[in-house]
Amino acid sequence: MTYPIAVRSALVMWTKTNVPELSKVSVLMKQRTKVEETLRAMQHAGAGNLQVISDFDMTLTRFAHCGKRVPTTHNILDHRILIDEDCTQKMRALLNFYYPIEIDASQTSEQKLPLMVEWWTKVHHLLIQQNIQRDMLAQAVRESGVILRDGYEVFFDRLAELQVPLLIFSAGVGDILEEVVRQSRVFHPNVHVISNYMDFDDHGVLRAFKGHLIHTFNKREGALLHAANLPELQGRPNVLLLGDSLGDLTMADGVAQPHHLLTVGFLNDQVEERKESYVEAFDIVLVKDETMEVPNGVLKFITSGGGHAK
Ligand SMILES: [Mg+2]
Q1: 240 alpha carbon – ligand 1 mean position (Å)
Q2: Where are the domains of the chain?
Q3: Which of 55, 248, 283, 289 is catalytic?
Q4: What gap in Å lies between CA 177 and CA 260, rounded to an integer?
Q5: CATH architecture of 5-61+147-202+209-302
Q6: Is 202 a catalytic residue?
Q7: Are the C-beta atoms of residues 255 and 240 closer than 8 Å to each other?
Q8: Among 1.10.10.10, 3.40.640.10, 1.10.150.340, 3.40.50.300, what is the CATH number of 71-142?
Q9: Active-site residue, 55 included
Q10: Is the pTM of this model over 0.85?
Q11: CA–CA separation, 310 vs 299, rounded Å?
């Protein structure tokens, strides 16, 4: 079939920005045109100018699997080889009190911030009292039922192949997070983790948590303090950011003078209450989508152009 010139160029433009995954029913976008422009600009700059910054719990991991909630890195610690029944009960009581605050659409991040610090400080104190053995963490992860989103291998492997740094920025527990990624066989050399790390004594027993507490609503401080100094991220002004919480949007604040930023938000639960704020805040919102199909499609598009590799 022969198309007139104007139609042909329109088709070329469409083909150039086509990410078929963006047509999935789970995808919401406030400004599709802006997303497409950003995608084209990022494709033009290529993989050599790209870095990926991602949250971990309920972003790289699934929210639910076979009708059951998938554990977060903190929940994985809720295993009898690590903590006792009393500690479990106390951590659950804290979750029941503080989690509704974390996802309450009627409160600002600033209002929630001191309460989140209170929550995780209490949890860490409880954990420290349990004499957790470092040697037991791998078994707890294996038996936890934690699972990364479908298509995670493509995501991790492609980034490694192209030597695009993946910064995983988590308010969870770094030691557990690393073990999950390791057991999933995708802990490639391009993966960098900023999280809360356990401090073990000479006998491998948990005695404290290292550094300042990172929680959902202070990732900006963490980004400025840690991510800004990672040499692997220098000279890569384009950012693909993945998160499941509005607080995750500040993870890119450590990037000096970003050229293009594309944000993808997983909206896992409380969909009706939070849809509007997510669509306002993230460029692409994925509603109850347990897969990496859209991030993979976006990544494939950005890195398949003629951009110059480093
Ligand atoms: Mg999360």
Answers
A1: 16
A2: 5-61+147-202+209-302, 71-142
A3: 55
A4: 28
A5: 3-Layer(aba) Sandwich (3.40)
A6: no
A7: no
A8: 1.10.150.340
A9: yes
A10: yes
A11: 17
